[in-house]
Amino acid sequence: MRCNWVGPLLAVGLVACVSKPTPQSTQPPTPSGERPFAIVIHGGAGAITKDKMTPELEAEYRKMLATLADEGYAVLAGGGTSMDAVEAVIVRMEDSPLFNAGKGSVFTHEGTIEMDASVMDGATGNAGAVAGVKTIRNPIRGARRVMTHSKHVLFAGEGADAFAKEQGLATEPAEYFRTDKRWNQLERIRDREEMELDHGSQSIRIEPGVTDKFGTVGVVALDKHGNLAAGTSTGGMNNKRFGRVGDSPIVGAGTYAKNSTAAISCTGHGEFFIREAVAHSVSARMQYGGQTLEQAAKAVIHEELTPIQGEGGVIALDAQGHMAMVYNTAGMYRAFKHSDGRHGVAIWEE
Question: Which residues contact 221 (CB under 8 A, 6 or more apart)?
Fold first, then answer.
């Protein structure tokens, strides 16, 4: 089953599920003939099923996603850049215990927190990333600072933390990132010598008043200047070992942006996204294969990832304001807001 957003959407979001690609619809004109601008957000994809979600927690996620879309849209509506909007929204997600990024990150096998993040500017092709950081309060800010204040693309481990501190970015002690819920999740699988996707099928049942977090977070944005940007941040896999790094800080795998094609952010089982260079593959299908944004996103998820048992999803946005949110899992937390008046929040095939 292939699920994508189509047509005018209500605030709660509507999804069309089809068995084969459908033609991409023409976007309505924006007011006063202005350039379109938009923001699309994901909070992770995986085995997110209704039987694991209480009504109270579902409402909390929906409210948060709607708020994030409003806040990111406000940055764009005020003339802010797509990169400003991406950073602002991901910082909010990293500060929330609802998501597996920043404050809500999962633990490694050794009981530490190791976070990854990346950003890419569609106008210039510049990118920045950090991997395996332990002290940066907001890894997405570290990634952007690597892009703007260094000659490099990716800093890792202690070096990345030292760079962030040198740049004056906020840091936190290990205790800041620790939550009892996350620690209990680690204890449950630690001795089984296996890693677990935070949003995977083995997640424990969510109880009222207790927050659980589902995977990577990401944002793609298009600003009034016609420029695209993408960003992704994560705490990685529960019980990961040996400095494991997934796709989130890998430009071309978890994050990619190019004004002539699209901005893409990914979520899911990172090893598969790295092997298939998923984010860049969406862009390449558009650039070299002449596919629309929707066709490219669907093909990558359902024709490249699914056959090799890769699970996850992508959000994507092009310079004309077309949007795609495609996944091959039970659900994906997602939200968007467009200058043509459309906006939506969804978790399942709604």
Answer: 37, 38, 39, 40, 72, 76, 82, 83, 85, 86, 228, 229, 230, 263, 317
Active-site position among 216, 232, 261, 267: 216
Rounded to two decimals, the pTM is 0.85
pLDDT in tens, 43-78: 999 888 888 889 999 999 999 999 999 999 999 999
User: Residue 225, exposed/middle/buried by CB under 10 A (0-12, 13-18, 19+)?
Assistant: middle
Concatenated DSSP letters of 243-254 = T---STTSBTTT
CA nearest to 253, candidates 224, 216, 288, 290: 216
Neighbours of 176 (CB within 10 A): 13
CB 235 within 8 A of CB 186: no
Cα–Cα distance for residue pair 211/137, rounded to 1 Å: 20
Q: State the Cα–Cα distance between residues 186 and 276, nearest whole angstrom.
A: 29
pLDDT of 203 reads 39
pLDDT at 27: 43
Instruction: Tell me if residue 216 is catalytic.
Output: yes
- Cβ-based neighbours of 192, under 8 Å, separated by 6 or more: none
Neighbours of 243 (CB within 10 A): 11
Q: Which residue has the tokens 């996944």?
A: 327
Q: What does the pLDDT look like over 222-252, one tens digit per residue?
A: 999 999 999 999 999 887 888 999 999 999 9
What is the b/e burial string over 263-296, where b = at least 16 CB atoms within 10 angstroms of the residue's CB? bbbbbbbbebbbebbbbbbbbbbbeeeebbbbbb
Instruction: State yes or no: pLDDT of 265 exceeds 50.
Output: yes
Lowest-pLDDT range, 38-52, 140-154, 291-305?
Answer: 38-52
- pLDDT at position 332 over 50: yes
**Residues 291, 293, 299, 304, CA torsion sign:** positive
Q: Does domain 35-105+174-232+251-346 have CATH number 3.40.190.10?
A: no
Domain range annotation of the chain: 35-105+174-232+251-346
Question: So what's the pLDDT on residue 22?
Answer: 31
